[in-house]
Amino acid sequence: MASKYRGRIAPTPTGYLHLGHARTFWIAMERAQEAGGQLLYREENLDPQRCKDDYAQAAIDDLKWFGCSWKEGPDQGGSFGPYRQSDRTELFLNAWERLKDQGFIYPCDKSRKDVAAAAQAPHSEDDAEPIYPEAWRPPLGVGQDADSPGSINWRFRVPEDRKIVFDDGRLGPCAFECQRDFGDFLVWRKDGVPAYELAVVVDDAAMQVTEVVRGEDLLISTARQLLIYEALGLQAPEFYHTPLMCDMGGQRLAKRHRSLSLRELREAGHNPATLRQSEDWWSGLED
């Protein structure tokens, strides 16, 4: 790791956080402390339909109750703010323009449903995103005269016959084949906000994050994001992907499954230290 370690936790306020989130963020905090570095808190609140202010405040309050701490964030400021993605639009637009001018991205009028329904649109077992059909790609140069993203999706043009390889701090060497494991992916959405892949690259680079700690369900996102780092000429951080926490039925914890939240655990009087010693907490973690 770099000597000036900077880690981050980045909740999305679309619901209350659950114990799986807390474990990932706790690991991020521990790795920052062990490296003698700093941890920042970034609120990834770009989805205008699903992100709510109440959930954003609940995330801060519940993580502090759980014992997590950070040196920078929307609650206390810092030198790399603002710490809410909705306040960082200009940075994202600058990155979109650079990618557009160099021909790395193109406008796309196809929806996720269109891609999923397309003939011969397989997808990796590790990812829920179908492979975008190469036949739908426009010729090089299409969209380069645009002066704004407009009300249309924009996709990154993933190269063919290329393997993306990186060393994960927990899993070791990881490799993904372009156009087999993932295809052209969204970088800008038609509702006027950047997609996850672009936003986190821009923010992690601007905030000088040296290691990204997040769940192993985002391994393919890392491969995509490494292409964006390369296209923008930015130095990529190191990565550490944590195991996912599952319930007693073997299903991974998720907001959409209404998994037991930190807020519910807190209101029920649970002790965070006891939760961190539970069998669920240690499930999947190496000794």
Automatic annotation (TrEMBL):
<dbReference type="Pfam" id="PF00749">
    <property type="entry name" value="tRNA-synt_1c"/>
</dbReference>
<dbReference type="InterPro" id="IPR001412">
    <property type="entry name" value="aa-tRNA-synth_I_CS"/>
</dbReference>
<keyword id="KW-0648">Protein biosynthesis</keyword>
<feature type="domain" description="Glutamyl/glutaminyl-tRNA synthetase class Ib catalytic">
    <location>
        <begin position="6"/>
        <end position="275"/>
    </location>
</feature>
<dbReference type="GO" id="GO:0004818">
    <property type="term" value="F:glutamate-tRNA ligase activity"/>
</dbReference>
<keyword id="KW-0436">Ligase</keyword>
<dbReference type="InterPro" id="IPR049940">
    <property type="entry name" value="GluQ/Sye"/>
</dbReference>
<comment type="similarity">
    <text>Belongs to the class-I aminoacyl-tRNA synthetase family.</text>
</comment>
<keyword id="KW-0030">Aminoacyl-tRNA synthetase</keyword>
<keyword id="KW-0547">Nucleotide-binding</keyword>
<keyword id="KW-0479">Metal-binding</keyword>
<keyword id="KW-0067">ATP-binding</keyword>
<dbReference type="InterPro" id="IPR020058">
    <property type="entry name" value="Glu/Gln-tRNA-synth_Ib_cat-dom"/>
</dbReference>
<dbReference type="InterPro" id="IPR000924">
    <property type="entry name" value="Glu/Gln-tRNA-synth"/>
</dbReference>
<dbReference type="InterPro" id="IPR014729">
    <property type="entry name" value="Rossmann-like_a/b/a_fold"/>
</dbReference>
<keyword id="KW-0862">Zinc</keyword>
<dbReference type="GO" id="GO:0006424">
    <property type="term" value="P:glutamyl-tRNA aminoacylation"/>
</dbReference>
<dbReference type="GO" id="GO:0005524">
    <property type="term" value="F:ATP binding"/>
</dbReference>
<protein>
    <submittedName>
        <fullName>Glutamate--tRNA ligase</fullName>
        <ecNumber>6.1.1.17</ecNumber>
    </submittedName>
</protein>
<dbReference type="GO" id="GO:0005829">
    <property type="term" value="C:cytosol"/>
</dbReference>
